[in-house]
Amino acid sequence: MTPTPLRVMIGAGEQRWDGWTPTQQTDLNLLEPASFAAYFGNRWADAFLCEHVWEHLTVAEGERAARLVYTYLKPGGRLRVAVPDGNHPDPAYQAVVAVNGPGPAHDHRVLYTLETLTPVFTQAGFTVQPLEWWDTAHTFHHADWDVLDGPVYRSRHLDHRNAAFRAGVGAPGFTSLILDCRRPPASP
Ligand SMILES: C[S@@+](CC[C@H](N)C(=O)[O-])C[C@H]1O[C@@H](n2cnc3c(N)ncnc32)[C@H](O)[C@@H]1O
User: Fold this and answer.
1) For residue 147, what are the contacts with CB-CB under 8 A and spacing of at least 6?
2) Which InterPro entries match (predicted)?
3) How far is 86 from 41, CA to CA, in rounded Å?
């Protein structure tokens, strides 16, 4: 019998996706290795999903958190991570996601771009594939990624605010900088 994969959402908040186990900061705290040790014991996750959480950590905390998640991910497994995109062209978007911004952004510590987020994960040992991002010329890029491998709501694919953008007739609504971070299969 094939075991059910252990696919874990970190900082899930209200989000729920079929096949994914939601956890909160009280279960898995990216700043507290002991919370991972208590939750996983000697298990490994097959995959992690983390939407709009890493921007709540400083860069140094984010780097430590990347190394922590790496150690609890099976070799060959994937962390899919999404954060607000510092190159999104809409000033209204930038106002909402700003560092120390309004409402839920009051504790945003960093606003990442592809160039600044990628090394947070490569320094931990991950190989990184960008899935959705804006470049500095405000051009949007996206890979052909599978939602079933880790749904990110605030994405071109799924966010209800992007219907016209998906159809190629309107401006972008709300997108994220999304990366797939893989632990290499043969990693020790
Ligand atoms: C903006 S909410 C995003 C919630 C959900 N992932 C979503 O996309 O709707 C930020 C989440 O990050 C979580 N969070 C903040 N710091 C964290 C940490 N150190 N470890 C784990 N989760 C954290 C918060 O508890 C909160 O659930």
Assistant:
1) 157, 158
2) SAM-dependent_MTases_sf
3) 37
- Please state the rounded mean pLDDT for residues 170-178: 92
52 lines ligand 1 (CB under 6 A): yes
CB 155 less than 6 A from any atom of ligand 1: no
pLDDT in tens, 66-93: 999 999 999 999 999 999 999 999 999 9
Report if residue 2 sits inside a domain.
no
| Mutational pocket test of ligand 1: of 16, 24, 49, 53, the residue with most ligand atoms within 8 Å of the beta carbon | 53
Token pair, residue 126, equals 């991950």
Tell me what percent of the chain is helix, strand and coil, each rounded to the nearest 5. Answer: 30, 20, 50
CATH number at residue 99: 3.40.50
Structure tokens at 101: 């911004």
